[in-house]
Structure formats: structure tokens, C-alpha cells
Amino acid sequence: MTTAAAGSPRTYQVRTYGCQMNVHDSERISGLLEQAGYVRAAEADEQPDVVVFNTCAVRENADNRLYGNLGHLRPVKDKHPGMQIAVGGCLAQKDRGDIVRKAPWVDVVFGTHNIGSLPVLLERARHNTAAEVEILESLDVFPSTLPTRRESTYAGWVSISVGCNNTCTFCIVPSLRGKEKDRRPGDILSEVRALVDEGVLEVTLLGQNVNSYGVEFGDRYAFGKLLRACGDIEGLERVRFTSPHPKDFTDDVIAAMAETPNVCHSLHMPLQSGSDEVLRAMRRSYRSEKYLGIIEKVRAAMPDAAITTDIIVGFPGETDADFEKTLDVVREARFSSAFTFQYSKRPGTPAATMDGQLPKQVVQERYERLIATVEEITWAENRKLVGETVEVLVAVGEGRKDERTGRLSGRARDGRLVHFDAGSLAGQIRPGDIVHTTVTYAAPHHLNADGEPLSHRRTRAGDAAEAGRAPRTPGVLLGLPTIGAPAAVPAPTGGCAAH
Question: What's the burial of 487, exposed, middle or buried (CB within 10 Å: 0-12/13-18/19+)?
Fold first, then answer.
């Protein structure tokens, strides 16, 4: 007996935790399930036939969150024979068979290297009425050759590599995602063109360390070349990338950003600490002088560049003097935004067993000081834009207060969040359309534009959103995308992509 009515397709939900990598992996999981005949359950459906948890092992309390959610599902499953629960992602790669031992009502556990096995594992678990656990130690097939159900009509993720060759002492990603594996440039560009053919305007190139792209085929300038090649794709209006590593950042990438019109002047470059001693303990392979030197070169080539970062507070052994050095770099770098994290132990990482673990109250106090310093700077930087005209790609779900305030929201070319008044164009502007508007107010984390938009351009992405369509790529080597129904985009959080 299954929860689906006789003759009806089985329904599914995917619940995503963690970074942009996981958000994109969830698009692939959805594509695989739909190719296998499953249908996405309505958001309000509390008893889909299959629930897939795509997990993160980087964020604090990730395991508690997973097991708490699995516990909530147990009585639901008990009441609906045939319902299946699958757990994948980084925590599944790490915990493996422990998941079924702790939560024996889980049907399938799969890892980061074998996403494509999920439909077969679900069917095998149903047939055998027993849990299926399959964890591979290396990549099975490159994920982007898998079918993908894209969640946005206007923006898409495109992986250029998976895995990481770095050995940061706080990070568990290399042991979960494996060594870096690079895609061939032609395959990447084919996927980008396929998305643009469906109306996508903005593409974000994804990698654990995009600057080391090309290491597998021996071209240290491959990433800059890839950015320039994206500039030749007609209809592609915005190119972003995340995340670069300062140790591999080369001048040719800065030149490619500055000289390729559709590459956005926005750079997310993790700092982690401003103290050279802490960076050495983190095994980050660069020092604050090099980091600030990259920023100086970026701003010389692109004075309008918006630079964002990641910072960890309270790493083992961090002294007050070390923390002050971080504040000094923040003040000099003038970030437009920063993702800030309190250090917490990750079992299996070298940092977890280091001497000098700091008391919670010390870390909290430094964290609060860091946030205050960051917000003082981001607010000052945002205020410089009041009175300026910005190009906004209209988005879905970016503004939590939009319904109450009557505004729409989207991202400027430099990545800043803009809430704007549609004025006389209310009802005509769709997600995926482009507007130009004038900034009237600045806050630390967003800009407001409360005057009449200066212009509105309808786009193919907006047409698709209005018609209720989103791209589906069946694997870029298998033909052009088809069209499917869209769904809300999960909000990405900082995590394993930010190194």
C-alpha cells in the first residue's frame, strides 16, 4: 500500500539546508524525481509520498535540526503506510549508517557523490521493505549531467567544479565533497546557453573554490577565460560567481571582471580573520596584506565594486589583539555586506581538538562588536548610493515586508538588495523584469527606492514567470531544457560554499 491513490503519481517534497551548493543539488534531486515520474507536492501538503532532506554538516546544530525534523515526521509516516523518507547531502555523507540507527523509520540514505542513485534507492527500499544506505567515496557522475528542475525563471546556478583541495582546519567540506573535480569549459558554457535559451538573465557560477578552476586540466587561467567566454553569450545579462579563495586569486580574473560587460562588479571573498596568526592556524594560506591587496586591485579596476565576505569570530586561540586585527581589516576593506559566524566545533575537523577553545561569553561579546562595526560600515557605504540610479532585476521572495509596504524587491547589479515602489506600473512588473529606479533611502542591509521607476523592461524571464513556467534542464549533454511549473526558491544561507 502506498500513500498515492491508485493510478496517481507519487508526490515528493525536498527540504534543503545549507549553502548554495545544496540549493542547486536540490534542484537536481527534484529533476531526478520528476524524470522518474514523481510529482512535486503542494507546499501545504503535510503527507507527501516522499520527503527528501538535503542536509548540511557545516552549520551549527545541523544534526540536532535534522533529527528533530525526522522525529516530527515519524508519527506522520506511521499513519501513512508507503510514505518514504530519504536523507542526503553532507550530513548523510558524514553520519552514514548512524542515521538509520538513530532514526530507523528513514528509508534511504545517500551521499554527496551519488545524488543520481536516489530514484533507484527509493524503489529498492520499497521493494525490499528495508532501509537502503549508499555512500560513495568519490563522485559517481558529475552532478550537472543530471536532470535539473530549476527554481527560478530569471536566475540559475551553474556548477563549474565540486569538491575542494584546501585543508582549512575549521572546515569539513573536503572530507564530504571530496577532492576538486572540474567540468570542461564547453560543458559549462552549454549549460549556460541552455538556461539563456529559456529566458534566464543571470547565472551564478558555483564552486567550493572557483579561483582554482582548471587545476584538473592544468590551466591556472581557466576561470578568467571562462568569465570572458560568458561575455560572448547573447542574452546573458548578469554573471556572478561564488566563492573565490584569496590564495588563488589572480590579476587576470580582475581584468576579466572589469572588461566583460555582463560580469557583475560584485565579489564575495571570504576573509575569515584579519589576524595572520589566526589565518595560519586556520591553514588559510594567505595573510591580511595579500587580502587587502586584492581588494585594492579590484577597486582600482572597478571603483563601483561591492565586496562581501565571511568572517569567523572566536577561532581557537584567538586573542583580543587578533580580534582587533579583524576589526582593522573590516574598517579598511569597507565591505558592503558580511556573513558573520561564531566559531563552533565541527567533529572531524582539526580545529575541534585545538587548544585555546574560547568561552561562549567571550565569543558572543566579540561577535556583537563585529556586527556593530560591520553595520556601521555597510550603512555608510549604502548611504553613498542615495540619489543614484540602479538597475534592478525583480525577484521573488526577497522582501519579507513587500506585501505590507506595497513595494517590490530585487537585486542591483552589484548584488545589493533594493526595495522599490512600482508607482503607476503596479501590476505590470513581473519577477524577471528589469527596472531602473533612484535610491531614496539606505539601511545597513538594503536600499529603498520610493519614487516612480525611471524605466521598466519586460523580459522573457518575466513572461515565463507570468505564465507559471520555470526552466528544466535534463542534463546539458542530453538536449535543450523543457518547461515545468515553478516553485518558491529556498533561501540560501552561508555555509560550505563560502570558503
Answer: middle
Interior angle at CA 448, CA 442 and CA 451, nearest 5: 125
> pTM score, two decimals?
0.74
CA quadruple 139, 36, 24, 107: dihedral sign: negative
CA–CA separation, 70 vs 76, rounded Å? 10
CA distance 471 to 271: 35
Residue type, 68: G
Helix (H) / strand (E) containing 155: strand 155-159
Radius of gyration of the chain (CA): 23
Cα 113 to Cα 406: distance, rounded to the nearest angstrom: 44
Q: Determine which of 81-85, 400-404, 491-495 has the lowest per-residue pLDDT on average.
A: 491-495
Task: Give pairs for 439-442: CB < 8 Å, separation 24+.
Answer: 439/385, 439/386, 439/387, 439/388, 439/389, 439/390, 440/386, 441/386, 442/379, 442/382, 442/383, 442/385, 442/386
Distance CA 95, CA 102 (A): 10
Residue 303 has pLDDT above 50, yes or no: yes
Find cell 566559531 and name the residue.
Answer: 343
As a whole number of angstroms, the distance between CA 122 and CA 128 comes to 10
Please report the pLDDT score of residue 45 as a whole number.
79
Nearest to 211 by CA among 173, 258, 250: 250
Collapsing DSSP to helix, strand or coil, 350 comes out as helix
User: How many whole angstroms separate alpha carbon 311 and alpha carbon 108?
Assistant: 35
Quick one: CA dihedral 372, 377, 380, 381, positive or negative? negative
Do the strands 202-206 and 155-159 form a parallel or antiparallel pair, or are they unpaired?
parallel
DSSP letter string over 353-391? G-S-PPPHHHHHHHHHHHHHHHHHHHHHHHHTTTT-EEE
How many residues are there in the chain?
499
Non-local CB neighbours of 401 within 8 Å, separated by 6+ positions: 407, 419
Of 39 and 346, the one with more pLDDT: 39
Look at 35-39, 49-53, 268-272, 407-411 and tell me which has the smallest mean pLDDT: 35-39
C-alpha cell at 343: 566559531
| CA proximity to 431, closest of 451, 452, 402 | 402
- List the one residue out of 470, 471, 472 whose CA is nearest residue 147: 472
The helix-helix angle for 320-333 and 360-383 (nearest 10°) equals: 10
